[in-house]
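User: Sequence recovery, please. Input:
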């Protein structure tokens, strides 16, 4: 019940823009989610508090887990999928499956490491489905449970894919890049973009189509 309520309200929780300001604007972000040592202690305390909450009441544990990690996970997912709404959907699905399948009982790494790896797995799954490259029959629960701490090779693969995605966006013309980010990252409708930039609806559609084709090529390559 708790996750259903959180899932229904997912679009009311904003992505933490401060943590991830405007991706694809000349900066490649690292996939490393580690914090400075002084902040690690705070994370450890929060993780212990959440773990104790799960032991006492799984419902409360899920609520705390959601409140603590929803926004950072959305910010991480949007780096891959370039859409706030899609990022929110993917992250909410992860929490829903963790609750329904009781995957919180099987987490052996830190919650933070587990959830961020699950986000990357789910984002890659989405991209595979979106661009028709890989079989999409894998269960989301398997993607979540398979999120033990990534190996250095996996981190390199994540970074390589992210770099390809960002490079393909940066290679667009300034206008195509602006239109694409307004649509996918800012969530603006085609008609709104056309009005704000004083261009036709067909021009907006052409820019979006060009950007998506660039992404398809980058991912297929």
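Assistant: Recovered sequence (221 residues):
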């Amino acid at each position: 019940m708790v996750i259903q309520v959180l899932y229904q309200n997912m679009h009311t929780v904003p992505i933490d823009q401060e943590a991830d300001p405007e991706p694809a604007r000349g900066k490649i972000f690292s996939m490393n989610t580690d914090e400075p040592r002084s902040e690690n202690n705070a994370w450890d305390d929060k993780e212990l508090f959440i773990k104790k909450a799960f032991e006492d009441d799984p419902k409360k544990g899920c609520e705390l887990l959601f409140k603590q990690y929803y926004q950072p996970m959305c910010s991480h997912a949007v780096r891959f999928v370039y859409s706030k709404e899609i990022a929110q959907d993917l992250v909410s699905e992860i929490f829903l499956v963790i609750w329904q399948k009781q995957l919180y009982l099987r987490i052996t790494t830190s919650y933070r490491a587990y959830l961020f790896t699950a986000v990357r797995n789910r984002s890659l799954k989405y991209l595979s489905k979106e661009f028709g490259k890989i079989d999409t029959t894998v269960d989301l629960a398997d993607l979540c449970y398979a999120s033990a701490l990534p190996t250095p090779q996996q981190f390199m693969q994540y970074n390589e894919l992210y770099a390809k995605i960002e490079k393909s966006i940066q290679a667009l013309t300034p206008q195509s890049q602006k239109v694409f980010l307004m649509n996918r990252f800012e969530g603006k409708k085609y008609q709104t973009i056309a009005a704000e930039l004083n261009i036709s609806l067909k021009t907006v559609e052409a820019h979006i189509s060009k950007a998506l084709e660039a992404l398809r090529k980058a991912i297929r390559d």
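Residues 2-25+34-149 form one domain.
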